[in-house]
Amino acid sequence: MNTQPCAAVVGTGFIGPVHVEALKRAGVQVTGILGSSPAKSVAAAQSLGLPRGYQSFDEVLADETVDAVHLTTPNRFHFEQAAACLRSGKHVMCEKPLAMNSAQSQELVQLARQSGLAAGVAYNIRFYPLCHEAAARARTADFGDCLHITGSYVQDWLLKPTDYNWRVIAEDGGELRAVADIGTHWLDLVQFVTGLHVQSVCADLQTVHATRQRPTGETRSFSHSNDAATHPVSITTEDAGCILLKFSDLSRGSLHVSQTTAGRKNCLRFEIAGSGQSLAWDSQQPNSLWIGHRDRPSETLIRDPALMSPSAAQVTSYPGGHNEGFPDTFKQLFRTFYASIEAHDFGPSQKYPMFIDGHREILLCEAILQSHRQQAWVDVDRFED
Amino acid sequence: MNTQPCAAVVGTGFIGPVHVEALKRAGVQVTGILGSSPAKSVAAAQSLGLPRGYQSFDEVLADETVDAVHLTTPNRFHFEQAAACLRSGKHVMCEKPLAMNSAQSQELVQLARQSGLAAGVAYNIRFYPLCHEAAARARTADFGDCLHITGSYVQDWLLKPTDYNWRVIAEDGGELRAVADIGTHWLDLVQFVTGLHVQSVCADLQTVHATRQRPTGETRSFSHSNDAATHPVSITTEDAGCILLKFSDLSRGSLHVSQTTAGRKNCLRFEIAGSGQSLAWDSQQPNSLWIGHRDRPSETLIRDPALMSPSAAQVTSYPGGHNEGFPDTFKQLFRTFYASIEAHDFGPSQKYPMFIDGHREILLCEAILQSHRQQAWVDVDRFED
Amino acid sequence: MNTQPCAAVVGTGFIGPVHVEALKRAGVQVTGILGSSPAKSVAAAQSLGLPRGYQSFDEVLADETVDAVHLTTPNRFHFEQAAACLRSGKHVMCEKPLAMNSAQSQELVQLARQSGLAAGVAYNIRFYPLCHEAAARARTADFGDCLHITGSYVQDWLLKPTDYNWRVIAEDGGELRAVADIGTHWLDLVQFVTGLHVQSVCADLQTVHATRQRPTGETRSFSHSNDAATHPVSITTEDAGCILLKFSDLSRGSLHVSQTTAGRKNCLRFEIAGSGQSLAWDSQQPNSLWIGHRDRPSETLIRDPALMSPSAAQVTSYPGGHNEGFPDTFKQLFRTFYASIEAHDFGPSQKYPMFIDGHREILLCEAILQSHRQQAWVDVDRFED
Amino acid sequence: MNTQPCAAVVGTGFIGPVHVEALKRAGVQVTGILGSSPAKSVAAAQSLGLPRGYQSFDEVLADETVDAVHLTTPNRFHFEQAAACLRSGKHVMCEKPLAMNSAQSQELVQLARQSGLAAGVAYNIRFYPLCHEAAARARTADFGDCLHITGSYVQDWLLKPTDYNWRVIAEDGGELRAVADIGTHWLDLVQFVTGLHVQSVCADLQTVHATRQRPTGETRSFSHSNDAATHPVSITTEDAGCILLKFSDLSRGSLHVSQTTAGRKNCLRFEIAGSGQSLAWDSQQPNSLWIGHRDRPSETLIRDPALMSPSAAQVTSYPGGHNEGFPDTFKQLFRTFYASIEAHDFGPSQKYPMFIDGHREILLCEAILQSHRQQAWVDVDRFED
Questions:
Q1: What is the structure's pLDDT at D229?
Q2: Is D316:D303 a contact under the CB 8 Å cutoff?
Q3: Of the ranges A163-172, B267-276, C153-162, D76-85, which one carries the lowest mean pLDDT score?
Q4: Nearest-by-CA chain C residue for B302
Q5: Of the N and C termini of chain B, which has fewer Cβ atoms inside 10 Å?
Q6: pLDDT of B173
């Protein structure tokens, strides 16, 4: 009898190996990996110490030992592959974005509901333990009502016109880039923390470099090589942008995203003001949560299971002062995902980000793009539940 | 012969005594102070060690020993008093806002130009030495082109519905409050640092408390007393807001202001991304300037005249590591203001904030208010030069 | 043929499972685990998803599939078990301290040298990538000569007289506690970073609580339970202490250790001043290295393989801004350890901490204890090479 | 009638003008200043806007309008000048060190007691409001018993062998330099905060540069000029050092001082662990006090009179979030000093640092020097009360 769940990983770029390692840590057996060619599959399997490099996506679906499939492929494959997984009876953990448009993502939501399978989207940042802690505190009387939610997600890896990655091309990554790639992480996170939904947006986006130099060969995310031959390509996706937000209660806020801020490597910050206290967090110091007070000194909570809410303590593995980081978020996300699978719990309310969360982000992106093009406020379409 | 310049201060609230002390430090003789009643004038003169408590504003204007008048009165008196000073041949340093609307402030700009007198607005934050340093660096090739300018100015002293101050009432402080009181400091600062002007705004403002409890007696800024009798008053001014910004080049940005963020006592932050490097500063740690780099470690410049640009070194008085703070900004502002006076330099380009800067902020406020009401982008009217 | 190395883990406390997970991440197959009883072995194997719970230490040694043994047992077992592993032809990775005294540890060093096997001590903190980076930078001309080395390692988990753990009892943990448990991590680290050795010490130690309440049952590290029955026990091990240091060149320094500093969960800090620049690091923000300069702004290097020395980039797995933490240090330590094993490199100079490093720490502890008792400077005995 | 107290300042180096400005802010009239020559006196008076440049020290003493004299001369003049002031019936505020040795300082203590005059030493760092706050909190039950006191005072202005100042020469500055110049500030501060006294010391000092290049002309503190002609001089004073400390209760601690730590401009840090909570402060961020807790999140108190103890609120002038800095400490010190004078309170217990505090620091320095020379623990001689 197979008691340990088994997963296959599709995709061998930056994030595929992150899934592989986190699955091992979460106690999930990884059956193998699929790359963009059989040779790449075999090479990845070997370097990651996995038993099998798959020949094709169909081979993954046909592998009866596979309980769940992790999709870490380029964005444009997500819809088709996720649908195929569900239709093949495989649980699926899909990297964001869930699909290329909301028609696709809505279809996936319905497919997932009918499937009786687990269907998650890898919004891993929720799984920094102190983000769970913030969510627990945002629901307390001490926090009070939410007043405003502001912050940013900024990086610098696309600062120069010579920086290039498939994501900058609308056809490959989607019409939105910075908002879709990193802004949606922020939007998912603050909605997770507060329990509120964004209802209207007013966006203004910037394409800092209308032309970038594309290397002849391939490139990986977060890497720069200077010696390759290049040719200019026109860029229509945004490098940066600012967005005003109205939430489902009376809360208001704003988000700034940028992939062109020198010195900020990968920096997500939020500041959520409640009527009783504030909560602020910075992904570059993820083991600290700032709790702002008016009438007494503000607090800094160091990630310490002994001092955290039960829901947050549950997604941390190490004692106070023993820093956890980016790879740990995937471990905790997958522990949560597979705990539901092992419990045969496929209900509509899960502790991991579900397809409906991925769909919501795509609706948000579409509203943001429309808002930018119209230079006006746009309501986010509500998902017909 | 009286070589040392002499100043009178009008206003005895929080900021009047700040001016008095800074004038002494700047080597300016303070002739006396005027309060809202002769008795208050005398009491203030005594507690501040000044030779004279003026009986009336006219008495100030009539005092021939007075070279310059500092206006720290409630906002609604600024226009009339500033005009009277200029007409009486007195230099004037006016607290912000310069006036209650742009018709008034435009009139003051013209009056100042014709007067051949020094006419400044007390945007003191520019005079944190590292803000001058940021301005110097923003003009270098290393910084490059400005890409985006984001930040916030947040406080918590009006968090609770029982917090009250004359500024919350539109009739006394103006229709805008948080934006006008603190947002304009941020807007002035980033325009000073970058040399750019805001051209269009899209604002969304929040009145968190539509009703506040007004104490029967008077209250001072930044103070809370809980035991006074109160009665409810309706509030129309904003407690918080978010604003999208378009600058005079292609730069974009956003500003968040709030007087209802628990734990942020008086926190102005900016992050300015250039094509070569970034600059970030936080008024709660004013002696550090962050300089962000893509291809080498980012830097933190501790305020140290030995390491700063000449223009910044000129507005600092103490060696590296010897912190300067809020009161020092007024000292440096006044040193700069009176250096121009002593040099008989009343030309159109000064190192201190001039009436035109104050006017620009009022135009900005009017555009922001209109934008909020229309929930749309609004262009800032250009000053007809 | 089994190309992937195989390891067994001995010990099921806090740190045993840390080894198990890090071994999986490092691509090492974990054959099984041994606890203090067969039942505990089976339970740990099950919860960690390992194929086997060993019945006895002899069974581990007899398992021919085991290439290496990880010892995470209480300190008093290390000597005997490490020796047994080497005599059985198993590579060994031993938790610190290597032994209970320097006679034992010296014997182990010789045994390891004769064995032709890999023999490491788990000084994991070296494997924070920025500690490797500091080591690389400390060897540059820009850093210059080392002048002084200061810092601390402070925690709060033994602050109260009701806090208890087997380590507080000299018979179980050794005569030294705070110095041995955490001080040796700091001492190993700064010697690794600078390449210098401590030659003389002058120590003053404190036993804050001469009596502690011992629970009747067992306790785990970093956990507090308040409801168990307790009885008082006398404590002779130190809760805190300060130590003056003389290094093998002219460098001087000091170290403060404490397990009784409220609010410091697990905080190791060093500040190393060179004649050209300084290096400072804080384990609570392990992804930042401060580089101090005299004549230009100081720098903060965010852990980013693109900006780090090759030796440091080699022990990091994620791009800049994607935080790594405590568990990643074990992964990198084990990657380094098993890379040597796979390369059949068992020479005297390894990139992982060797038995001689463990021995050196024990000599240091003995000198520190003697210095404290004599209240005088004591030379650290040199290892006869 | 002259109700406002009047002070003369002796010394025109870095710190003399600091006193002048702070006296003005404290509402004290400055009668004039004395430099090392009549010409320097006049120049300083002019640049500082003071009515008078004194011709000689005797002229200062003879000036009947002078109530108090501030001594900011080189160390070797302090004893003689302070004694002369007291004998002339002038209150005296002396820069540290109070004298060149403990025989002198003890004589001054007795002279001060007999004089019925105010006699203070300018340990200004106590007057950072959050240092007063720490002192208030260290006396609470929440803090509990003091366990250990550690920290450092580090600078970089004497890092290079070409850095020179009169203080490096034993004849001018005293046999101890870094310890005397900055270490005594730290020692005074932690004794003020905790109410404890250092009883025994074990010191190890370093002269990093045994030879320095002395410019032919004069130099000022904290300044570097590279183009002057120089000649080598031998240096016997210490650039750095570490000291173990035993306090009057059971507390232990350590201090590190350095004037050769690149990047630390003027950085005093302490960490004081109590049995209930900890207190930590860094002079480079003086408006924040860290309060460490074991069983709840640690706190950061932003300097805010509304949240501080009465004794601390009394020495702050600005609301929360409006940073105060180095110059403000002198203002608060002098406000405190002159408040006692105005109240004719010359009793043995004052809120400002008294001559006995200055004497205690000299005893400490003598013990530290002896300890270093003997490489052994030395008891601090007790003042015969």
A1: 87
A2: yes
A3: A163-172
A4: C297
A5: N
A6: 83
- In which element (H, E) is residue C10 found? strand C6-10
ipTM of the complex: 0.94
Whether B277 sits inside 8 A of A262 (CB atoms) is: yes
- Gap from D351 CA to chain A (nearest CA, Å): 26
Contact A294 B160 (CB under 8 A): yes
Token pair of D8 as six digits: 């003369």
Do residue C292 and residue D264 have CB atoms under 8 angstroms apart? Answer: yes
Domain limits, CATH 3.40.50.720, in chain C:
6-124
- How many Å separate Cα A248 from the centre of its chain? 22
CB neighbour burial string for A144-162, b if at least 16 within 10 angstroms, e if fewer: eebbbbbbbbbbbbbbbbb
Rg (CA), chain B: 20
Residue D314 pLDDT class (50, 70, 90 cuts)? very high
Residue B307 to chain C, least CA–CA distance (Å): 6
Give C324-376 pLDDT, tens digit per residue. 999 999 999 999 999 999 999 999 999 999 999 999 999 999 999 999 999 99
How far apart, in whole angstroms, are the C-alpha atoms of residue B279 and residue B290?
Answer: 6
* Mutation choice for C interface testing from A160, A221, A326 by most C CBs within 10 A: A326
**Concatenated DSSP letters for D232-282?**
EEE--S-SEEEEEEEESSS-EEEEEEES--TT-SEEEEEEEEESS-EEEEE
Sequence-distant (6+) residues with CB within 8 A of C36 are C12
Query: Which residues in chain D have Cβ-Cβ distances shorter than 8 Å to B302?
Result: 265, 284
Residue D52: CB atoms within 10 Å: 18
Report residue C141: phi and psi, to 5°.
-65, -30
- B288 Cβ contact partners less than 8 Å away, ≥ 6 residues apart: B130, B281, B282, B300, B301, B302, B303
Q: What is the reported pLDDT for A222?
A: 62
User: So what CATH class is C129-324?
Assistant: alpha beta
Find the closest chain C residue to A327 by CA distance.
Answer: C324
**What gap in Å lies between CA B239 and CA B260, rounded to an integer?**
7
Question: Residue D129, Cα to own-chain centre: how many angstroms?
Answer: 15
Asked if B161 has any chain A CB less than 8 Å from its own CB, the reply is no
Q: Residue A1's pLDDT band (boundaries 50, 70, 90)? A: very low
Enumerate the H helices of chain B as residue ranges: 15-25, 38-48, 57-62, 78-87, 102-115, 129-138, 170-173, 178, 184-194, 310-313, 326-342, 355-374
Which residues from chain B sit within 8 angstroms of residue C299, using beta carbons? 296-300
Residue A171 in contact with partner chain D when CB distance is under 8 A: no
Low-confidence residues of chain B, pLDDT below 70? 1-3, 217-228, 382-385
Q: If 0-12 CB within 10 Å is exposed, 13-18 middle and 19+ buried, where does residue D347 land?
A: exposed
CA–centroid distance for C232 within its chain: 30
Largest interatomic CA distance in chain C: 63
Which residue from A25, A155, A264 is facing C24, i.e. has the nearest CB? Answer: A25
Q: Are the CB atoms for A242 and A131 separated by under 8 Å? A: no
Q: Which of A14, A317, A326 has the CB atom closest to C324's CB atom?
A: A326
Q: What is the mean pLDDT of residues A190-196?
A: 98
pLDDT band of residue D381 (cuts 50, 70, 90) is confident
Q: For chain C, which residues score pLDDT lower than 70?
A: 1-3, 217-228, 382-385
Classify A195 as helix, strand or coil: coil
Is it true that domain B6-124 has CATH number 3.40.50.720? yes
What's the gap between Cα B101 and its chain centre? 16
Is 50 exceeded by the pLDDT of residue D2? Answer: no
Mark yes or no for CB contact A297/D296 under 8 Å: no
The answer, for A136 touching chain B at a CB cutoff of 8 Å, is: no
H-assigned helices in chain C = 15-25, 38-48, 57-62, 78-87, 102-115, 129-138, 170-173, 178, 184-194, 310-313, 326-342, 355-374
